[in-house]
Amino acid sequence: MSAGIVVGLLLAAGAAAFVLAPLFREQSEIDHKRTASNHELQDLQSRRDMALGALKDLEDDRSTGKIGDIDYAELKAKLTAEAVEIMKQLDAHTPHSPPISHDRRTGSS
What we know:
Elements: H1 2-63, H2 69-93
Helix pairs in contact: 1-2
C-alpha cells in the first residue's frame, strides 16, 4: 500500500509541475523582454548623451577657432540630425503620461 501512495504522490507532483510550468515560463519571458528593453533604453540614453556632448565639443571648438565655419556647419548638421534621430527612438521607448487637464472653474486638476 505504501508503494501505491508513493506512485500517487509522484503522479500528483508530475501533474502539478506540468500545469504550473507555463506560469513560470511566461514570467521568465516577460523578465527577459523587460531586461532587453532596459538595455536598449540605456544604450539609447548613452548614445543621446554622446551626441549632445559631441555638439557641445563642436561649439567649443568653433568658439576657440579650432574649426572653421564651413566644417562647423557640416558637422553641426550631421550631429544634430543624429541626435534628433536618437531622441525620437528614445521617445518611442519611453512611456508617456496622459496630459493633465485643468478645470478652470474649480482650479483643480
